[in-house]
Each structure stands twice: as C-alpha cells, then as structure tokens.
Amino acid sequence: MTNKRVRVLQVTDKCAIRGSPIQGPSRLLLTWWPEFSKTNIDLTLCVLRGETGCYAFSKAGIFVEALNRGRMDPRTIFDLIRIIKRDRIQILHCHGYGSTTFGRLAGLLSRTPVIIHEHMIDDSIPLYQKIVDRILAPFTAKGVAVSHAVKAFMTGPRAIPEQRMQVIYNCVPNEFCIRFSNQEKDAIAKRYGIPREKKIVGIVGRLDPVKGHVDFLQSAARVLTTIPDTCFVIVGAGDIRKQLEGLAHELGITDNVLFLGHCENVLEIVSLFDLLVACSLSVGLSLAIVEAMAKGKAVVATAVGGIPEVITDGKNGLLVPANSPDKLAHAITVILKDEGLREQLGKAGEQRCRDRFLVTRAVEQLRTLYLDVS
Fold this sequence. Notes:
2 domains, alpha/beta, 6-stranded parallel β-sheet, Rossmann fold, 7-stranded parallel β-sheet, 42% helix
C-alpha cells in the first residue's frame, strides 16, 4: 500500500560540530523536511546530546526533542524507546555513531526497524565502534550511504551486508537552481563587503583541518602572484579561524582574503563566486559542491571520497590530489584565466545537479525505502 502513512523518527547525535553552528547531516535533514511534508511520510526529530545547532530547525518550525545525554549514557536507549511508543514510530533513521548504536539497541528492544545513514568515511573509526557495528549488523534493516565511496566504508569497517545497502546522494532544494539578477548580486556584494570588480574564489564549510583550508590559503598566495585582482572568500565557522587568519597574515595575503564566518544564506554568497574550491582531505559527498553546481559555478575539488562521483574531471569541474597546494593553485588559475571554460564547466555542473542531486529525487528514493522497510 503506497498510500499508507509511515512515521519515521530521525535520530542524530548532534546538530553542530567543532565550533560550527550546524553540520552537514543537519543541513540535509532541513532540505528533506519540506519535501516530505508533501508525502505520506511523517518525520520527527530527536537529538541525543545538547540543543546547540537546533535553532535552524526551530526557525523552520520543526520541533526537536533534545535528550541532553552524554556520549555513552545507556539511558539514551530507554529515552528512544519511550519516544517510539509515545509517537507510534515505525522506523528509526539514525545518523552518527551514537545514534546508530543506541538506535539499533532501542530498535531491537522495541521491535522497530532501523536504518543507519552514513555521511562520511572515517579512516580512524574507533576499534570499539567496529566491534559494536559487527554485533549490531544483524539488527540493521538497511544502510544508506551518501556515495559509493561511503558505501565501501559501510560494507567494510562498519560491517553492513552489501545486500542491505543503498546509495542515496546528498541533495539540494530544486529552487537552488534559480539564478539571482545582477541587481540582486550587487546588493548581496554590498551586504557582505565582497568586491564585485574582482575575481571571486570561494570555499564553503566549517573551519576544520579536514576541510583543507590551509591548502586553500597556500594556493591563494600562489594564484595572487599571477592574478592579483582576486578575492578569496571563506564561508564558515569553526575552531581554527584564528589559526587561518594568522596563516593569511604570514602569507601576506590578508587584503585579498575575506573571512565571512557562518552565514545563513550561503547561496547568496555562492552566487557571487567565479569559482568554488572544495579541497577536503576526506569527505563522504560535499554539499557545498552540489550547491555551487546548482548555481552554475565552476568547481575545483580534491579527488577524495565521493567527490569523483559528483565531478568528472574536465567536464563539470577540475579534480586535483589532496594536500597539493601547487596543483590546486594551477587548476584555479586555469579556470580564472579562461572565461569560456568557466562557463562550460558551470553549465555542465548545473545539468549534473538537475539530473542527480535535487531533493525530489532523494526524497522519492527514501520514501520507497521507508515503505519497503515498514
């Protein structure tokens, strides 16, 4: 019965991480929510730890039940069982190590099927988590990976059987493909202090070593030696901002680097970019890349994790090795100097986004999965 209503509890460890007020999985949930409201799937949300980062859900009119439990607090299991019974939950959909562990235990005790959703590749996954995953693998109804690279991590270290796995790519709202007018862009630039007369190269994401901001700044210094009228814009908050500001000063590029911190309307800023750089050292699948593609922006990215599933080198972006500021700088320079190439890559990226990464596609895949599991 495809029209039956299914109640799904989304469970996540936390909404914010390492100085950033919101993390990728939370942004993805915010993208899903309005689209699911048009379907026969009823979503509710539980956060195992504190309320940090939950403001974005409250702002969107989404109630968050924050348990405020510690990382290893066994009471979390019974909290989840209470919610399952109270709200007549039919499926638990879990994001994060704590959620997938406590969620599967709660699901086992309450006879509720559990889907675990992995957003990253963790090369340093703790041994205890590997042991827990192997014990709980039989009690996993389905595993969802945000890319085929993440799927390999789930079938390997996380011990989920291949036949229970499904890849559902990260997505953006359909309306992200709508373009801003030049007049709107002028107003956005004025609001954020972004110089419209310069080439704009941007990076979007929390300020965390894994995101490669050090490589971004080192490549910026190289690019500026040949294209001095370039502004490098850093969007995001995190614990290493002072370190990055210090590095920009050491490199002598402070006047060409703009730290904007956390921004609510990231797409406004991305609309001003000539080029997005995503130079992560490890990633499941980058939402920032997909968002830039939706706006028709050229992308330079590191060939790590699921990024090669999004970017085909030379077709809708350029790929470079991780930890290689010289090659990153060269790719940035090539695109900045060739307007025709920028436009070609941007158009191809937008089409790839429309074909594979819009929310309507992802939500329909999830809806089918929920109906199958319930």
